[in-house]
Amino acid sequence: MTFTGANKSISLTVDGTASSVSTFGGSVAEVLNKAHVPVGPDDRVSPALDTSVENGMAITVDKAKDVKVNLDGTERTVTTTSNKIQGLISQLGIAANARVSAPADTLLASASDISIITPKAVTVIADGRKDVKTTTAATVADVLAESGVKVGAADLVSVPAVSDVVANMVVKVSRVNKSGTVSEKSPLAFKTSQSVDPSMFKDQTKTIRAGVAGTLETVFRTVSIDGHVVSRSLDGTRVLTAPVDAQVVVGSKARPAATPAAKAGATGAKAPAMSNEAMWDAIAQCESGGNWSINTGNGYYGGLQFDIQTWIGNGGGAYAPNASLATKAQQIAIANKVYAQRGLSPWGCAGAAG
């Protein structure tokens, strides 16, 4: 812009666009008014409006403008006198390595909407690895892509993939496998078949073939997360080894009635008349409580407690195998034989005879 007859040349730059003006004098405000450059309360003018102009002076006007800024996912309107995005970034105090949607030298007049993502510390955990990094990625999906982590359709992500990245975020990817299988083996019981043998007694049995348990395999489908099974469902079973059934023969014949045991003295041998009966009764009362058929299993038998050697050695075998099976008279008969040879010394209760 040139003013006729002006004696002072002024350089005027408005929002980065430069021009030359000439004026006879006055103040910066007068120059701007004559150049039809309106100045708002938020505009930045250098030098100040009341400054007197001089030849060769440079006047800069940065108009205040409202710029829509999306800062880390939050929309806001910022009033700035910066002409370029670079100045806006500096005004907001944002780190130089922030990610901006347009180049730093872009004029703000041509970039009404600006997206800015500041660097943030993020931890990505996947496949047994932990990746701690600083990123300007916008979303969780972007962070995973930066870390080279691919997410399968069944995998679980601790934060939705579309979520905005925030400072100190931890993103964990859990691998899900729904196609695993596991098998278990268990015994398969055998059956027992019976047949009857009429030549065998009812209380007799005979095993023709021993039973052998088989093996059953049960297969389950599994769902695992990071290698750990969290659920399973039955898929099927199959017989690995068939069981071998047992074969048993049982008798059907009744046993004959048992022949009663021969009573003492059943040998037919007759005992002599009892002598010294009162003496032997007294000794028997002491030795066995007067029980002439006692057999306690201690190796001594009958009322007078004969051992087998003494009983048989003195002819007791003619009456019974041991004294407990013989009659009182037969036991006294043998006792009198022993008494005739040895007196009462064999009996511990000899004193009971009086």
Helical residue percent?
10-25%
Strand order of the largest sheet: 2-1-4-3
CATH structural fold name of the largest domain: Lysozyme
Question: Which structural class best describes the helix and strand composition?
Answer: alpha+beta
Shape: rod-shaped
Distance between the termini: 167 Å
Number of strands: 18
> Mind telling me the CATH class of the largest domain?
Mainly Alpha
The succession of helices and strands, N to C, reads: EEHEEEEHEEEEHEEEEEEEEHHH
* CA radius of gyration: 61 Å
* Count, helices: 6
Average pLDDT over all residues: 88
Query: Biggest β-sheet, characterized?
Result: 4 strands, mixed
CATH architecture type of the largest domain: Orthogonal Bundle
Query: What amount of the residues lies in strands?
Result: 35-45%
Low-confidence stretches: 1-6, 259-266
Keywords: Hydrolase, Signal
Pfam family, one: DUF348
Protein name: DUF348 domain-containing protein
GO molecular function, one term: hydrolase activity
